[in-house]
């Protein structure tokens, strides 16, 4: 039976044996990948060789937190649970990539699945393809991020190729989350709005605040990686099982940096042909 070893950052022993068989240069080693054929070819064209499929998982019990019926408020206990569970899954995926001596992980998919173990139990899964660069960065440096970890990216193979060709390197997937309770309307407000077109300001403000908190946290992670910006940002809402007046906003994207300090993107030139 597979067990967890703290020295391998929670990677099960069975997974360590699988990773050992994927080590580059090992006789008979065969890479695995969740990339499509086109993505695989473009990642190779960008100068990266797939090594193997890496994954991280965390089954997490989400605690409870009381909210005030008529007050907009973040539910900090739930926000922290959702953030920590995702981070555990991502860090275990990165640990598998590091065990393969990979430079990064491309095509990352991060998902949440409810489990039947309990009403408040969910599994967070991160999966992607570990890759090794054919050569150092143009300035002779490492493709890993400033924390010495393999970079992570949820860009498609096509977008990854475009990013590298444009002179940028991925640093890591950055994310922000906020679980927020949206206040109920008072009965007097409900009755006064019947038959009228009117903005429900407390609902607007709640959703606006929750999105801003998620976006700000994602941006803070990018700043910690010394990124120039974040590309491919996705902002989504998840209701999970917390009731119809509680929702989670989740922001995620890939932090990037230019490969050269003096980098500029070359613009295509237009050639005009005059007939006659």
From TrEMBL:
<dbReference type="Pfam" id="PF01906">
    <property type="entry name" value="YbjQ_1"/>
</dbReference>
<dbReference type="InterPro" id="IPR035439">
    <property type="entry name" value="UPF0145_dom_sf"/>
</dbReference>
<dbReference type="InterPro" id="IPR002765">
    <property type="entry name" value="UPF0145_YbjQ-like"/>
</dbReference>
<comment type="similarity">
    <text>Belongs to the UPF0145 family.</text>
</comment>
<protein>
    <submittedName>
        <fullName>Heavy metal-binding domain-containing protein</fullName>
    </submittedName>
</protein>
